[in-house]
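ugh ok fine here u go
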Amino acid sequence: MSSQMTPPKQPTFHQLFTTDHDAVRAELLAGLTAPTAYTAPKFLYDALGSRLFEAITELPEYYPTRTEVAIFERHGAAMAGVVPAGATLVDLGAGNCHKAASLFGTLHPSRYVAVDISVDFLRSALLLLQRQHPAMDMVGLGLDFSAGLALPPHAMPDAVLPGHSPRVVFYPGSSIGNFTHEQALAFLHSVHTACGQVADSGLLIGVDLVKDTAELEAAYDDALGVTAAFNLNLLLHINRTVGTDFNVREWLHVALFNAAESRIEMHLQARHTLTVRWPGGERTFTGGERIHTENSYKWTLLSFQALLANAGFAASQVWTDEGQRFAVCWARAQ
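structure:
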């Protein structure tokens, strides 16, 4: 009598976000024509911008990535003692999935849900990861969660086991810093809701902390100029999307720490008076005038724990590096 082998699992994919090109163009033009010009930081991450950011994480000045990795390596056993094993690990902004995958052996999730704006970007990473972890359920979600996290029940592998599978939402890299305090609170409320009513669910999040101004500013204005290229590439992205005629040589990368707001700000500054044109409009920038391209808020341990509490999380536990430059927080939803 012949035996039948169980076929290996395959990831499932759900593309839940469709780009509205007219809305994107309108959003960019609204920012460019505002009294103080600005763009949302998400527009920094076109294909080239994403590759440049990966290069930034390798720079000696850019401490957040390696410091966060060191925290996970040093305190992984302690995290495993409080983060529930066998949970559904929901990875926000998963990218190449490397950060979450490095924790599989520590946290022992039974399911992995990789969330990014494009399923196509996740596809090859998840197919490879599935071969390395053949027993684990894996899902790729193409979802824009920047305005709030809403996980569709039909796309969640734990939906068939209500009440039995805790959700661990994973948000590393201090991406929460791109939100204003009000936006961060609203976003964390949505994460709390996404954890559901299952006991032991919660949020595992990386947070950059307030530190010496010179160290902060160097991390966003490196000696090689990689961060400058990352910021200036935004103008090429806008040219393709809106039809503007930005000349990157006419703009200067600026990064500064705004102590009153506790945030790093990135700007693009006009080197001289110039006019930018696009189909149906134009704007003149005077020399020294800036386009505000990104904020990266920095927190104290007390202020971030207070934010988590205000978002409804019942308790939080924190691990830091020795210099308290960066923190990883586990916050229970119930």
